[in-house]
Structure formats: C-alpha cells, structure tokens
Amino acid sequence: MGSTTSCCVPSSPKLRRNTHSRLDSYPQDAELGGEETGCNLQHISDRENVDESSMAHNPSDHPRAGTIFLSKSQHDARDKRKSLFINNHETTRRKYSSCSTIFLDENTVSQPDLKNTIKCVALAVYYHIKNRGTEGGMVQEIFDEKLHPLTKSEVPADYDQRRPEQKQIYRFVRTLFSSAQLTAECAIVTLIYLERLLTYAEIAIGPGNWKRMVLGAILLASKVWDDQAVWNVDYCQILKDIAVADMNELERQFLELLQFNINVPSSVYAKYYFDLRSLSESNDLSFPLEPLSRDKAQKLEAISRLCDDKYKEARRAARKRSASTDDLRGVRWVPAILS
Known about the structure:
The chain is mainly α and about 350 residues long. The chain has helices at about 15-25, 35, 45, 50-55, 70-85, 115-130, 165-180, 185-200, 210-225, 230-240, 245-255, 265-280, 295-325; strands at about 105, 290. The longest helix has 30 residues, at about 295-325. The model is unreliable at about 1-40, about 45-50 and about 80-90 (pLDDT under 50).
C-alpha cells in the first residue's frame, strides 16, 4: 500500500518514552505493594478477550484466510466454464507473450488501474448479493433503504427482492469515486471494510441494504486512505437527497460495527488485490494488455539494476559488520557518472 504498511498511524515513540520517564520519576511509597501501585497492571491488549481462532478465519484481518467474494464467485465460474464446454462456445481471445513480443498491463499492486478496479469491486459486491446465505443475518436499520432512502423517490414495495445487476452496482460506485476523485487503492480498502463488516457484525448484504453498506465503506475508506479526505457534506452534494446528519450516523454506526478496527495490513491489501485480479480473469474482465515497448523495457531494466545494486550493497555491509566491529558503517562508494 504504497510506502506504508498500515492504514493506521501508530503513536509517536518519543511520546511513549516521555510518558514512561514521567512514571519512573514519580516517587513510590515503600509501604504499598506492587498491586496497589499498579506496576503489575496488564496492557490493555492483554486484558481484551481476543478470539485468535476467529481472527485466523477472517479474511479482512488474516492474510492467509481466503476472501469471501472469491469463494462466492467460484460457483458461478464453474457453471460458466461447464456451459462453455457443453455448448462449445468460443471465449474471448487472450494475448500471450512470445519470444518476440511481451504483453504487460499498467496495473500493479502499488498503482492499480482505477476503472478496472472499480469494475472488479462492483463484481465482488454482486456475488456477495447473489450468493448470500438463505439464513439471512442480523438486520441493521441504519443500512435499510426503506428507513433511510438515498433519494426522494418512493421505494418499491419489493425493493428487498430485486437483485441489482453488476452494471447498476458499478454505476453507483463509479459515480461516487469520480465525483469525490477517489483513488483505486481506496476501492480495495472499501471491499476490505465491507467484508470486515459482514464478518464482525454477522450481517447479510442484500438488495435492500447494499447501497448504504457500500456508501459507508467508501466513506470510511476515503477518510482512512486519502490524506485530504472527502467530508460528509461533500457526499451530500453528490447524493442530493441525503442529509449530513444521516451521513454522520451512518459513519458512526459503521465504525461501531467494525469495533473501530480500521487497520489494513499490507499483506491483507495485497491479498485482496490479487484476488480481484483472479476474479477479473475468471469473468473475462482482464486488464488491458499492451506490448512492451523499448522505452518501458529500458525503464524496467534500470529499476531492476538499481534494486539489485541496493541488495548487493546491503549484503556486503552485513558481511562486513559480522566480520569486524571496528567500522560498523563502512565507506559507501558512489559510482561516478561520466557525461
């Protein structure tokens, strides 16, 4: 996720050192025991009842747990491949690299393509709604579009029975992202928060609540990821019929259902990125491939040599430090540039 490994900024080590120094300088009474002085108090993380077994199966927290949307989409992918095999239909022709031509796309884990990422996220939400469980789940009124409509138009009586198409979900997400000028990384974090909400609160996403659930995830992801976050009142300019108080309440309850866990490790982010790529390939939404040009090849080669030089320099410095402690830092040689 760029240059950071987490979406949450830790507290300053300097402030922690100052706090401990103030505690150490405070004179303790010799007659008071360790329990009365509070020296044996457990850390707050040790006092919390964290179920590690459930965390290991939560894809939004654990990097090795499989994503929910990919497992829900595999049923339709198998049926699609079976129908293509039975009917002998031709699939879209894919481009493959050869000895003379190499095809690459501009989409990377650090710089995803915005349009294709939004398409994949919308498709993931579609599979969540289509293959949702029959037992339902807990009902949260804050996400109900009948109680909190996004428009002034009358909500149909069977609003919770009309399953939205993938294009409808894509248009809704694309409108928010284009109007608020959000990035592709924010779309991936949105999907992570959405699946974290489904697992933490045990909520089922359906035709009657998907818009407000996606809106809450986008609202929170934009504030966590972007340095200059979009305000709630700005979303009211995009969605003309929604009030600021409703947006504030949506954000507050969304955070409470997430148990205020907005941390996204880099490993979890990378897992969702590659699973979205797998989802796009299985649904013929592959990212556009372009032949590798000479200029791009030279840039890739230069970046590869730079990384290789840094790795060799780090290994050389590590061997020198382990051999002797006379000079820990050593002399750093800089190659001369001849013009």
